[in-house]
């Protein structure tokens, strides 16, 4: 009896995944998932006050580094699922490059930070 219940449950689950379609929440793709990924990237980014604070050799600066670098992944995912997020992805690619080359001070770094912040403020719904 228990085996029949487990088999039925597995069958229903597999059927739901197969028939859910590419834009369903179950599939992890589509516009809603892209928006969620972009929002996640921007939520982490909101807690990075400036790129110049990333390499300050304290626990807070390490958290800024982790947030800035980690935010790039969901931004990239969002752009792959929905082309409206390509500018956000490219702006985060610039941030990642700056983190890798320690180019986090000066006007260019400030402009890169401001660009991501502006794109996050204007996220499409």
Describe, in plain words, how this protein is organized in 3D.
This protein is 70% helix and 0% strand. It has 125 residues and is mainly alpha-helical. Helix 2 packs across helix 5 (107-121) and helix 3 packs antiparallel against helix 4 (86-101). The longest helix has 23 residues, at 59-81. Residues 1-27 have low confidence and may be disordered.
Described by the principal axes of the CA atoms, the overall outline is globular
Count the E strands: 0
Helix share of residues?
A: 55-70%
Per DSSP, the total helix count is 5
Briefly note the structural class of the backbone: mainly alpha
Give the helix/strand layout.
Blueprint (H helix, E strand, L loop, with lengths): L1 H18 L11 H15 L13 H23 L4 H16 L5 H15 L4
Provide a quick synopsis of the model.
By secondary structure, the chain is mainly alpha-helical. The chain has five helices and no strands.
């Amino acid at each position: 009896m228990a085996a029949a219940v487990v088999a039925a449950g597995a069958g229903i689950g597999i059927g739901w995944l197969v028939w859910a379609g590419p834009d369903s929440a179950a599939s992890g793709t589509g516009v809603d998932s892209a928006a969620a990924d972009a929002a996640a990237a921007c939520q982490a980014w909101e807690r990075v006050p400036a790129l110049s604070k990333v390499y300050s050799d304290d626990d807070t600066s390490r958290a800024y580094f982790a947030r800035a670098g980690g935010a790039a992944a969901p931004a990239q995912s969002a752009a792959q699922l929905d082309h409206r997020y390509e500018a956000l992805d490219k702006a985060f690619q610039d941030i990642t490059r700056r983190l890798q080359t320690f180019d986090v001070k000066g006007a260019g770094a400030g402009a890169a930070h401001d660009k991501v912040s502006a794109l996050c403020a204007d996220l499409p719904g």
